[in-house]
């Protein structure tokens, strides 16, 4: 079924009419809730007597004109609320706002139930205020996020949510630590279920990192390596008895110097060629075969390695618990 599309943007006059109606309904809901609260307090004996003593004229007026006709007055408000629900439902159908035409009363259940003039359902009209404020916020007519009351509740809601989530996280991490301590085959299961299925990927990664590490190290230290090779060749020749005897011959000094230079050059070129060869496919395959042949040996599990693995995991979880214990809301609000 193709996605439903809303009708083109409404004319400005219709938009302003919607906005005006929203403000009108919001005002009615606030007045109605205030009246409900005051009438509930008016029924309390001490408050009723206090109003009678402080403002007898107002007490008589309210008791005779409003309180005695409270149900009728409330039904007048309810009639506007029912009209708002029916109007909103009609607009939702016209705009195809929901997948089915009858979804509106289920989505706005608090508006529908709030129209019932019974004490328990009247409290749902508070949600109607929230809904209207959200609608005005979405239209950009108000910015609730800048209100002091919103900032107050948002702050303590954030603190409460963080504290609850931290307590849950600490409990979960503690349970995981207990499971690690109680397990006798954790290392074997990690190797079998985590490492071995990724054996080829790990070996390939080892070969790539080795190639990259050796190449970078050689580039950064080439001069030092070449100097060390020259020194090694010179020392070897100086310590050779045959070279010492050769030096005693006529032109022997020149011959040994030339030999030393030639051997140093050959050794340096050999190292250069060897290090350049690490980027070849042959070298990578050699490293992968070497790593593959020793991979299973590296993963041999004994009591000591099993204990070390469990301790590492335990300490990592303990570090996470320390991080969770840090009350981040203090850094944000202090």
Can you walk me through this structure?
This protein is mostly helical and 334 residues long. It has 2 domains: 12-146; 188-301, no CATH class. The chain has helices at 12-42, 45-54, 56-66, 70-95, 104-107, 109-114, 119-122, 125-138, 148-182, 186-195, 199-220, 222-239, 241-248, 252-276, 281-298, 303-325, 328-333. Helix 1 (12-42) runs antiparallel to helix 8 (125-138). It starts with 11 loop residues before the first helix and ends with a helix. The model is unreliable at 1-8 (pLDDT under 50).
Q: Rough shape?
A: elongated
Which range best describes the helical content: under 10%, 10-25%, 25-40%, 40-55%, 55-70% or over 70%? over 70%
Mean pLDDT: 81
Question: How many domains is the backbone divided into?
Answer: 2
Helices, by number, come to 17
Report the sheet-strand fraction: under 5%
Total number of β-strand segments? 0
Please provide the ordered H/E string of secondary-structure elements.
HHHHHHHHHHHHHHHHH
Specify the biggest β-sheet. none
Structural class: mainly alpha
Distance from N terminus to C terminus (CA atoms, Å) equals 53 Å
Rg result: 42 Å
Which residues sit in consecutive blocks of at least 5 with pLDDT less than 50? 1-8
Protein name: Ion transporter
Organism: Vreelandella sedimenti
Subcellular location: Membrane
Membrane topology: Multi-pass membrane protein
């Amino acid at each position: 079924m193709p996605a439903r599309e809303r009708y083109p943007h409404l004319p400005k006059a219709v938009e302003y009419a919607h906005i005006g109606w929203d403000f009108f309904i919001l005002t009615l809901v606030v007045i109605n809730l205030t009246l409900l609260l005051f009438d509930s307090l008016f029924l309390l004996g001490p408050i009723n007597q206090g109003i009678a003593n402080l403002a007898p004229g107002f007490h008589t007026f309210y008791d005779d004109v409003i309180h005695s006709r409270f149900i009728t007055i409330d039904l007048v408000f309810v009639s506007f609320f029912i009209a708002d629900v029916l109007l909103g439902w009609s607009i939702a159908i016209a705009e195809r706002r929901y997948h089915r035409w009858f979804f509106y009363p289920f989505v706005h259940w608090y508006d529908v139930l709030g129209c019932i003039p019974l004490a328990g359902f009247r409290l749902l009209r508070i949600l109607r205020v929230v809904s209207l404020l959200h609608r005005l916020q979405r239209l950009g007519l108000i910015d609730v996020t800048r209100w002091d009351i919103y900032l107050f509740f948002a702050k303590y809601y954030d603190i409460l949510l963080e504290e609850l989530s931290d307590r849950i996280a600490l409990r979960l991490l503690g349970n995981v630590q207990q499971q690690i301590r109680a397990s006798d085959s954790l290392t074997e299961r990690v190797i079998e279920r985590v490492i071995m299925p990724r054996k080829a990927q790990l070996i390939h990664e080892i070969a790539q990192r080795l190639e990259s590490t050796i190449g970078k190290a050689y580039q950064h230290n080439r001069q030092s390596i070449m100097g060390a090779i020259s020194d090694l060749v010179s020392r070897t020749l100086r310590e050779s008895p045959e070279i010492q005897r050769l030096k005693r011959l006529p032109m022997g000094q020149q011959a040994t110097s030339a030999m030393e230079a030639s051997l140093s050059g050959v050794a340096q070129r050999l190292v250069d060629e060897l290090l350049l060869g690490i980027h070849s496919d042959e070298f990578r395959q050699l490293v992968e075969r070497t790593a593959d042949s020793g991979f299973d040996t590296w993963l041999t599990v004994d009591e000591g390695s099993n204990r070390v693995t469990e301790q590492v995991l335990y300490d990592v979880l303990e570090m996470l618990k320390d991080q969770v214990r840090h009350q981040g809301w203090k850094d944000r609000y202090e």
